[in-house]
Sequence to fold (660 residues):
Amino acid sequence: MNEMLRLEDLWLSLGGKEVLKGINFSMKYGEVNILFGPNGAGKTSLIMALMGFPKYKVDKGKIYFKGQDITEKDIHERARLGLGISFQRPPTVRGVTLRRFTELINNGKGKEEIMDIAERLHLKDHLDRGLNESFSGGEMKRSELFQLMIQRPDLVLIDEPESGVDLENIALVGDAINSLLGKDKVKDPKRGAVIITHTGYILDYVNADKGYIIFDGMLLCAGNPRDILAEIKRHGYRRCAICQ
Amino acid sequence: MSISKAYLSEIIEKAEQAKEKKATLGPDIDLSRYKQHIVRGKLESLEGLSKQEREASILAGIDIKEETRAGSYMQVDHSVVYERLNKVYEGKLEIMSTNEALQRYDWLEDYYWKSVRVDQDKYTAQAELNMTHGYFIRVFPNQKLDYPVQACLLIAENYVSQNVHNLIIVEEGAELQVITGCTLSKSDAEGIHIGISEFYVKKGGKLSFTMVHNWSDNFHVRPRTGVVIEEDGMFINNYVLLKPVKSIQAFPVAYIRGENASAKFNTVVYGLKDSYIDLGSRIVFEVQNTRGESTARVIAGDESIIYSRGDLIAKTKEHCIAHLDCRGILFSNKGRIYAIPQLISDGASKAELSHEASIGPIAEEQVEYLMSRGVSREDAVSLITSGFLNLDIPYLPEFIDRNIKEVIKATAKESM
Fold:
C-alpha cells in the first residue's frame, strides 16, 4: 500500500457557500505536492478540511489517510494519526506559552532537544511568550514549523510558508520544511507534504514532486510544479477558465 | 506601652456609630447569626493541626513543614494557635498577634485604623468591637528575607465571625513576601470572615503580598484593606480565589504617597456554584512619578456572579502612569460578569491612565488550533483556561502555582 492520502469526490462548503466541487486527489508516501491557485479558489479550505476543522463542512465525498477513512474524525484524532498543519494566520493564545505547549506536545522529545530546535529556528527568545502573541509574520511561520517539528507529523499541510517572511528567512523556513520531511539527514520515504504557495519562492528550497492548480473549487492541471509556476507567471490563471 | 486609651475610645466610639451601617457594595449580612466564640489551645508545630485543618491549610498555600518559610502565624477561629519565627531571622522581623502588638507598642497609634476607616461600614465596626486577633508583621529597616512569611487564618467551626485585624509594616529599605491563606476546614461551614488589613511600605521598601482564599458555599467574606506606600516603595498584591464562596466583597485601596513608588494588583478568580463575588482594586496616586497596574482575570462558571472592579485615581499635578487590564470568560449560560473599570483624573493633567476590559467565551478557533497539534478538546480548554488565569504572579512560589494549576484543571473539566 503506497498511497498516503486519497480524496474521493470531495464537496465542501463554508458558511453555506460551496467552496470545493468534487475533488479527486491521491498522493503517495514521501511525496511533496504543491497547490497553486488564485485567491478564494479553495486551497486553504482544502487543507483545513483535510485537518478536520468543522467550519469546513464536507457535504459529500471521502478522505482517506494511510488507508483509514478519516472523513468523520475529530481534529485531534487526525493529528494523532499523523496529520499536521502550518497555518497561514494562526490565532493568538495568550497565557499558553510556546515553551509550555511544545513541552506538552513533545512527542518524546526532551527539554534540551526542544531548546535546540527553538534555537535553530531563532525562537529561543519567544518561548515564554503566549502562542503567536505579538509575533511578526515571519516569527509566526517559524513558530508553526517549530511546533510541527516537535509534533513530527507524517503528512504536513503548509499554507503559504513564504507569506510575511523576508527573503533572508525563507531559507530558514525551507530548511525547517525539509527537516519536517526528514530530508535534512537521510530522506524519509514516509513523510509527505501539501504546500500552498502563491509566489513559488519555496520551490527554490523544497524539492517538490507534483503541482496542481485549484481553480473555482476544482483541481486542475496536475504536472511539474516548476512548469505550472512558469505558466502562471506567463499567463496568470486566465487559461484555467478554458481548461475547466 | 500600649496605644493610648484616648485613641482607643475614639475609634470605639466611631465603630459603635457604624455598627448598623450597610456597606456600599455586596449583599448585606446579618452578623447576629454568627455569635459562636471558639477558643483553641496552642500548638507545638503546624503538624499538630487535625488532618482536615492541615489539608485546608495546604490548599490555601501554607507550608506545614515550614521548610521554606521565614516565619509562620496560624489562627484557628478566634485563637492564635501558633506563632514561630525561624531562628535565622531573629532580629530581622517580628511576628505576633495584633492584640499583643497593640499592647506592646504605643507608636502603633500611627498605623492602627489609619489606612482603613473604622466607620467605613458594619464590618469594619465589627472588626473593632469584636476583634479576634489577626497578625502583626514588621520587618526591620534594610532587612531582606530569603523566604516568605506565612499566615493562615482558618475557621473550623460553624456560625463563627472571625474578625481579624492584620498589620504589616515594611520598614525603610526592607523587603518582605507574605503568603496568607484564608480557609475553612469544614466544607459546609456557615459563617463570616472579616479581615481588616493595613499595610505600610516605607521608603525603598518592598512588599509582595499573596492571598489565597479557600472558602465554601455557605461562607461570607468581607476583607477591608488599605495600603500606604512611601517614596521608592513597591507593593505587589496577588489575590487568588478558585473555590466557591457564598459572597465576598472587597475593594482594597493602595495610596501611593512617595515619589517613584508603585503598586500592582493581580487578581485571579474562578467563580463556581452560586458564588457572589465582588472584587476590585483601587490605586490612588498622590504624588509625582508614580506607577500602578491592575490586572484581573476572572472566569464565571455555574451560576456565579462576578463583579470585577478597578479604579485608578490620579490626584497629582505631575506625571504618573497606570494601566488597568480586566478580562473575563463566561463558562456558563447562567453565570454573569460585570467588568467595571474606572479612571479618574482629579486635576491631574499630566497623568496617563488607561484601561482595557473584555468579556468573551473561550475562542473556538484557539481550541481547534491546539487540537490540531494532537491535544484533546478537554485538554485544550483546560490549557487555555489555566493560561488565561496564569498571570505569572511574581514571587508566587512554585508549589502554590502548581496547586492553582491543579485546581484550575479540575474545575475546568467540571465546567465543560
Q: What stands out?
A: The longest helix of chain B spans residues 398-415. Chain B touches chain A at residues 363, 365-366, 368-377, 380, 383-384, 386-390 (CB under 8 Å). Residues 364-416 of chain B form one domain.
